[in-house]
Structures are given as C-alpha cells and as structure tokens.
Amino acid sequence: MRDHYDVIVIGGAAAGLSAALVLGRSRRSVLVVDAGEPRNAPSAGAHNYLGREGVAPAELSAIGRDEVAAYGAEVTAGRIVAASATTGDGTDPVGFSVTLDSGAVVTARRLVVASGAVDVLPEVPGLAEQWGRGVVHCPFCHGWEIRDQRIGVLVTTPNGVHHALMFRALSEHVTAFVTDPSLVDDTARAGLAARGITVVDAPVARVLSSHGKLTGVELGSGEVVELDALAAASTAEARVDFLAGLGLVATDQFMGDFRYASALTVDPAGQTSVRGVYAAGNVANPMATVIASAAAGTQAGAATHGDLVQADLAAALATAGARAGA
Ligand SMILES: Cc1cc2nc3c(=O)[nH]c(=O)nc-3n(C[C@H](O)[C@H](O)[C@H](O)COP(=O)(O)OP(=O)(O)OC[C@H]3O[C@@H](n4cnc5c(N)ncnc54)[C@H](O)[C@@H]3O)c2cc1C
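The joint structure predicted for all components is written out below.
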C-alpha cells in the first residue's frame, strides 16, 4: 500500500470493484479498501446477474478482485474509520485523507464510496439467524428458489400487502401475518382474499428452525404455523459513519410516509454534495440490485476519471502558462 493514490474506493463488492475496474483501465492509481461484508453475504447465490446467474456472493467478489488487479488496482482488507478533506494538490482544489482501522492513513485525489447498506431487521426472535436463507425480503432475489412452497409474509409496513401479492405470484401457499390491523384496510383484505392469500391477524412471536432450516413461526398464542420460508421487510441503513468528517450524512428515504431506508444523495454520475467524493451502489440507492450496483460503480468510476482528466488539464495549462511567462 502506498501513501497516496488517484482514487481510494471504500468498499470492494459489486459497486466498488466496478468503479475500480474502470479506473484501473483508465490508468489511475487505485486503492480499494474492503471490510468484506457484502449485504447479500448470507445468501447462497446472487440472482439476476446476467452472465453469472446464481454465483455465490464471495465468488463474485473474488472474480472482481482478480479482474481489477489485472489493471493495477490494489485491494486491501480493512475498514475505513474516518475521512477528511485535505487542501488538494497544486491546481487541483480537492483532496482527501482516510484512516483505516489498522491506523494507516492514506491520501487520494478523489474518493468513491461503495460501502453498501446494513439491513435492520424486524425484532422477532429467531428471524436474524435465518436472514438471507429461510427469511427472505426480495421476490426477485429468492422467489424462484421458494416457488410453490409454503411462504409466510410478515406484514409490518404499508408495503406488506404488496409484498404478499409479489410472493403469491410464486406460490399458491401464501400466508400473511398482520401485526398491525391498520396496515391492511378492507380493500386490501378483499384483494388478499381474491388471490387466495390466508390472513392471520396475530403478531409472530418467534421464527422456528430445526437443524438450520426454517420450519415455521410461533404466534403469541403459542399456535405454530408450519412454513418453508418467511418474507420480511428490512430497513436498509447506508454505511456512512466514517464520512462524518466530510460533513456527508445519509438522508431518510420514504415510500409515501413510510421510511424504508437511508442513503447518500448523488447526482446521476454519482457525485455527492462534497466535490470529489462519489458514491455508488446501495449506499446511494438502497433498491439497487447487484447488477444495478455494478452499473452505478462503473458510472461513478468513469465520472471520477473524467473529473481527474479536467484537473490534469488545469495543471498542464498552469504549467504551460508558467513556462510561457518565464
Ligand atoms: C439477503 C440478501 C440477498 C440478496 N440477494 C440478491 C440477489 O440474489 N440478487 C441481487 O441482485 N441482489 C441481491 N441483494 C441485494 C444486494 O445485496 C445488493 O444489491 C448489493 O450487495 C449492493 O452492492 P454494493 O457493492 O453497493 O454493497 P455491498 O455488497 O454491501 O458491499 C459493500 C462492501 O463495502 C464494505 N464496507 C462497508 N463499510 C466499509 C468501510 N468503512 N471500509 C471498508 N469497507 C467497507 C462492506 O464490508 C462490503 O464488502 C440481496 C440483499 C440481501 C440483503
């Protein structure tokens, strides 16, 4: 690891490695720092990634690390714990310094933040242990794998009824567990009934598993409902604590009045409100799938390179002007 790079990429999964790939191929010096906890790590396979359908998340990252290394990008295991602005370098007005959990301090002309999001789960005993396996959130990511099975859906948000209908497209055996009756009005109940979805008006007290496999849920009454899978909504919180020194914070994301996530605000190229700091993937878009996160990383990497090209031009013109004036 050197002391200084053109670009430091924070996070080395789909978004970060895609940014590093385009930057490496553009002959930029790049350091990727990765804490090694991609959001989909609990899942056996990442789906809807064309060309690598069903690849294990860790395998996709390993392939990406090899690909970026082939273009000279460095990848190091570690966690960025702090970031701050420096005065820049010559004619380039911006620059950054980051601190790793090892205590190492590294500087760069630009930052790409690709640190993803953390899923905050409903507080139901036994649920977290099954997250990404028996407990799922995304019909596109896991639906095919649980088609025709007995699927429960925890209706804990205003989007819960839609969630149940999405899973009903995959199985005829769907049960909606309604914790808060105000989330399901008469029209919604009529829709659930019309689609043959069983409604249980009782909170789930516990998720049950046997030998690592989800087997059902236990209601507050003690009644057990046997299931093969349970769908639940998480709140996706952007991983941004280390950006406080740059004044960058995540903002709340809403569906109607319902807060479902937090994320950094970026323009279409991935530029954040701090000049020279770009962001891509779930940290800026909690709904982005793996392939969409990779695409956003490519876009942010390309924009970062374009930004540096302009800074290089300004430096070259200043040098040429100085020579002419001498
Ligand atoms: C259970 C589950 C299953 C999913 N299945 C699918 C699927 O099948 N198909 C699909 O398309 N999408 C799926 N998704 C969504 C998918 O996880 C995201 O689209 C994807 O992970 C976003 O990629 P990313 O690169 O933005 O972030 P992440 O994959 O979360 O990667 C961020 C990386 O940054 C690192 N990091 C964080 N903070 C720091 C720091 N301070 N310093 C250094 N490194 C840091 C993390 O450790 C991690 O390695 C699933 C999500 C979940 C929760």
